[in-house]
Design goal:
The protein is mostly beta strands and 328 residues long. The chain folds into two domains: 224 residues, no CATH class; 74 residues, Immunoglobulin-like. 12% of the residues lie in helices and 44% in strands. The protein is built from five helices and 22 strands. The radius of gyration is 22 Å and the shape is globular.
């Protein structure tokens, strides 16, 4: 029995060590350790009640340090992170154990302003590109470039518990683009998927910023600098206590996906008693569903929009058999 267990463990480790995996980073926005909800009253670290109309930032300069210090350079990609769009798909990567990630908040100098060596006019970017036009706007013109992070809403200015004073921090400037690194505990979600779960603590990001009196600041100095420095000096990004669970329980069988243009293919092996499938977006909206009975097979979905989705198999009693996060 011991030999059988050892062989099984070695087989699992071998499968993880010699195959590529889909890698996702989830950057969950939090206030006081609870999920951020736009338009909902919350308190900052100084007890000031506020609510947000928006909270958006760029993440770039990404390096994945893995498997004994190897550096996977993904710094040529810029991601836009929003309150309802905070899961990043890094790709199908030759990575087994992620030890650290390095990144910066914002748009790097080479892409940012007219002085950037790789900068292009914003109108040239495809509509869906992170550096294209956004709502609210992240771009302040060819001279000023992109805002690294924007946050705005209302804060309580008279201590009556009701947010009444408008505040906006739109943070610009190449000098405010600062490198950051953090150790990582990953979750091996299934045999072909790694998830990295990180909290983005909005209240910590606003530490020592007098949002009840700051007003509207679009710039690269004073509070605009202070709020960007908080990323480096405070625990704006961290991993929750549940990150110590480094391996989630795998569902039955194995699953994988591939995508090309607007076509998504999901494949599976050895999933017994399957009865139905469901494809949901990350908000839970059902995009596709249907019946299936094959233990091993493939489903192809055409005309699927770019984005991240969850694909789930259920048995005939609607018990979950296996779930796969997929990207288009």
């Amino acid at each position: 029995m011991v030999k059988i267990i050892v062989i099984a463990i070695c087989t699992l480790l071998s499968a993880l060590s010699y195959s590529q995996q889909n890698v996702f980073i989830t950057l969950s926005p939090k206030v006081a350790s609870t999920d951020l909800v736009i338009g909902t009253n919350v308190s900052n670290l100084n007890g000031v009640v506020f609510n947000l109309d928006y909270f958006d930032y760029y993440l770039s300069g990404l390096h994945i340090i893995h498997d004994g210090g190897q550096d996977l350079d993904l710094s040529d990609t810029v991601f836009l992170v929003e309150p309802t769009n905070f899961v990043l798909y890094l790709g199908y990567l030759n990575v087994t154990n992620i030890e650290q990630i390095q990144f910066a908040v914002g748009v790097p100098a080479n892409l940012n302003t007219q002085g950037g060596s790789d900068a292009i006019d914003i109108s040239v970017y495809p509509h869906a590109h992170p550096l294209s036009f956004q709502d609210p706007s992240m771009y302040w013109g060819w001279t000023s470039g992109y805002a690294h992070m924007i946050i705005g809403g209302q804060a309580d200015s008279n201590n009556d518990g009701a947010p009444d004073a408008l505040f906006q921090l739109h943070n610009l400037g190449n000098a405010n683009y600062l490198p950051y690194q953090m150790p990582i505990i990953q979750t091996q979600t299934n045999l072909s998927q790694i998830d990295v779960y990180i909290n983005c603590n909005v209240d910590t990001w606003l530490k020592d910023i007098a949002i009840q009196t700051v007003g509207v600041l679009h710039g690269s100095a004073n509070e605009n600098t202070d709020v960007m420095n908080n990323v480096i000096t405070e625990s704006v990004f961290d991993q929750g206590a549940n990150a110590i669970v480094s391996n989630a329980e795998f569902g039955v069988g194995t699953m994988s996906f591939s995508s090309a243009n607007s076509s998504l293919t999901v494949s599976w092996k050895n999933i017994k008693n399957v009865g139905t499938f469901q494809l949901n977006d990350l908000s839970g909206k059902v995009m596709k569903f249907g019946s299936v009975s094959d233990e091993t097979g493939t489903l192809v979905f055409d005309n699927v929009s770019n984005g991240l989705y969850n694909f789930t198999f259920f048995d005939k009693n609607l018990n979950t058999l296996n779930t796969l996060k997929v990207a288009m």
